[in-house]
């Protein structure tokens, strides 16, 4: 079930739970009999600024090759990766960088979503631990509190844009703000003058979160 590389490891796990609600992870018996069950995960030990080593795990990859590729990209970006960096730290740095290349009005909109919405809800999480389940739960909470769907969508689009930059810079293996489905995007006027929509619209995710904020096999 598990394979090893020179650094890091790639293996398959799932989100099934036993009768005590404990997650089975790599020990689920279905993994041995059903090749489509669960998803692929990589884990690797990376150094942190305090000279200790931190294990980074990312899951949800559809194939072993995809997980290995993501592990390789993670190791390529290791020199600049701080495993203790929080979402708040990353978003703040991202905003500072955007201020040099975007119009002030655009940066002001980004900053509004980041400082008033994203950082209060997700900022304390480590960037490497941010998963789709956290983002889906955020959308669910906002909608249940009466926030407009367009406003929540714009916040999520801002987050997806920031995390997309992290992927392109090899800071993250994949963008957890991108859901696997690709339903029709919102009306173009809903996103006019705002961050480009994430690949795979959050429209369906936000609709589903009215009932339950689920996310399978996310780390």
Explain what the structure shows.
The protein has 219 residues and is an alpha+beta fold. The chain has seven helices and five strands. It has helices at residues 30-33, 64-76, 87-98, 104-122, 132-144, 149-168, 203-208; strands spanning 3-4, 9-17, 23-25, 39-47, 53-61. Strands 1, 2, 3, 4 and 5 form a five-stranded antiparallel beta sheet that branches. A hairpin with a 5-residue loop joins β4 and β5 (53-61). It starts with a strand and ends in an 11-residue tail after the last helix. Mean pLDDT is 77; it is low at 1-5, 180-186, 188-193, 197-201 and 207-219.
Task: Describe the secondary structure blueprint for this structure.
Blueprint: E1 3-4, E2 9-17, E3 23-25, H1 30-33, E4 39-47, E5 53-61, H2 64-76, H3 87-98, H4 104-122, H5 132-144, H6 149-168, H7 203-208
Antiparallel strand pairs: 1-2, 2-3, 2-4, 4-5
Q: List the secondary-structure elements in sequence, H or E.
A: EEEHEEHHHHHH
Radius of gyration: 18 Å
Shape: globular
| Helical amount | 25-40%
Number of helix segments?
7
Low-confidence parts: 1-5, 180-186, 188-193, 197-201, 207-219
> What oligomeric state do these chains adopt?
single chain
Largest sheet: 5 strands, antiparallel
Q: What is the straight-line distance between the termini?
A: 19 Å
Mean pLDDT: 77
């Amino acid at each position: 079930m598990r394979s090893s590389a020179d650094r890091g490891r790639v293996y398959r796990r799932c989100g099934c739970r036993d009768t005590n609600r404990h997650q089975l992870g790599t020990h689920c018996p279905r993994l041995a009999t059903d090749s489509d069950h669960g998803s692929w995960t990589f884990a690797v030990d990376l150094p942190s600024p305090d000279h200790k080593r931190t294990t980074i795990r990312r899951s949800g990859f559809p194939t072993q090759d995809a997980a290995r590729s993501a592990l390789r990209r993670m190791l390529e970006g290791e020199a600049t990766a701080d495993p203790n960096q929080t979402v708040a730290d990353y978003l703040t740095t991202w905003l500072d960088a955007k201020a040099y290349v975007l119009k002030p009005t655009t940066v002001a909109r980004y900053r509004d979503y980041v400082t008033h919405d994203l950082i209060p809800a997700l900022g304390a999480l480590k960037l490497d631990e941010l998963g789709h389940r956290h983002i889906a739960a955020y959308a669910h909470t906002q909608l249940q509190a009466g926030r407009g769907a367009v406003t929540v969508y714009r916040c999520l689009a801002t987050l997806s844009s920031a995390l997309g930059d992290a992927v392109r810079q090899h800071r993250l293996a994949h963008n957890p703000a991108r859901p696997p489905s690709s339903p029709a995007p919102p009306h173009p006027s809903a996103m006019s003058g705002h961050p480009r929509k994430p690949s795979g619209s959050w429209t369906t995710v936000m609709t589903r979160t009215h009932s339950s904020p689920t996310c399978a096999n996310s780390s």
